[in-house]
Amino acid sequence: MPELPEVETMVRGLESKINEGEIERVEVIDQKLLRNTDQRKFQQTMTGNKIRDISRKGKYLLLDLKKGGVLAIHPRMTGRFVVNSYPAETDYARLKIILGDEGTLVFDDMRRFGTLDLLPDEDSGPLKKLGLDPLSPDYKEENLARVLQSRSEIKRILLDQKKIAGIGNIYASEILFRATISPWKKGSDLEKGKIKKLFKAIPEVLQEAIEKEGTTISDFRNPEGDSGNFQLSLRVYGKEGEECPRCSGEVQKAKQGGRGTYFCPSCQGVKEEK
DNA sequence: AGTATAACCTGTCTGC
DNA sequence: TGCAGACAGGTTATAC
Q: Integer distance in angstroms from CA A6 to C1' B5?
């Protein structure tokens, strides 16, 4: 579920609710969550520690621990954080971090795809494989142009976290619509002008979605339990059969890499029936 | 090298 | 109403 804007919304929500309180204890409800981490070591590291900082890298949410170490949590499809929840709000709790006075931080994840890694720092483990962050100072047109040098279809490149970190299936379609590029165009076939449009469209779409506090199709909630609002601004994702907001053509849906891709054939220059 | 498919899970929706 | 099958915001392994 969560892509970059949703994870960023989660980070901001947690920042406003979590101070630097001491972790009393942690409850691991779903053992599978710790598949990459030793249970004992996890308990020892967490107990008595403090959350110094909350941040994001790609789609990972990072809890920086005061006594060293970083918890890197990837929410995958249905992972989310809830603070001081009522039991009904966390039917699928996999981990509870009990912070005493500040309450309890719950990681809730219906489909149980989410992952947790206890890492020495923010440049190790799965984090070091992440590509360009579209909202970081490293995001420059020349860097984007470099990762686009591939025979892969552009939508696949946008979804490849090793190339660009944070874009998922909703925003990939929205970005390509905004940049008027066919999802099936090969990266290395993109003209200079299209690269420029794409370079602009990526952070614009993501930033607007952050301002609307993410997209809620069905599951996504911020740590207070609220839905996002960007679903009201989607222009092609989930709009199959509707009129294109730009050219009055018809939005279509097709499969690409086993996933739904939404596009306007006439303004994005998609020729064949996909 | 690039693409397709299945797998990991649980829930929801659609069509017969 | 029931039930099988498809599908869902993500990622990874394996097979052409």
A: 28
CA A138 to C1' C11, in angstroms, rounded, equals: 25
Summarize pLDDT for A151-189 with one digit per residue, the tens.
999 999 999 999 999 999 999 999 999 999 999 999 999
Q: State phi, psi for A98 to the nearest 5 degrees.
A: -90, 115
Q: From A118, A217, A100, select the one nearest A168 (Cα to Cα).
A: A217
Look up the pTM and report it: 0.97
Dihedral of alpha carbons A63, A64, A67, A69, sign: positive
Distance of CA A65 to the CA centre of its chain: 22
Q: Is the C-beta of residue A177 closer than 7 Å to nucleic acid chain C?
A: no
**Residue nearest B6, CA–C1′ metric:** A258
Nucleotide nearest to A112 (CA to C1'): B9
DSSP H helices in chain A: 4-17, 39-46, 141-147, 154-159, 169-178, 192-211
Q: Are strands A51-57 and A60-65 parallel, antiparallel or unpaired?
A: antiparallel
User: What stretches of A215-262 show up as alpha helix (H) in DSSP?
Assistant: none
Model confidence over A57-85: pLDDT tens digits?
Answer: 999 999 999 998 999 999 999 999 999 87
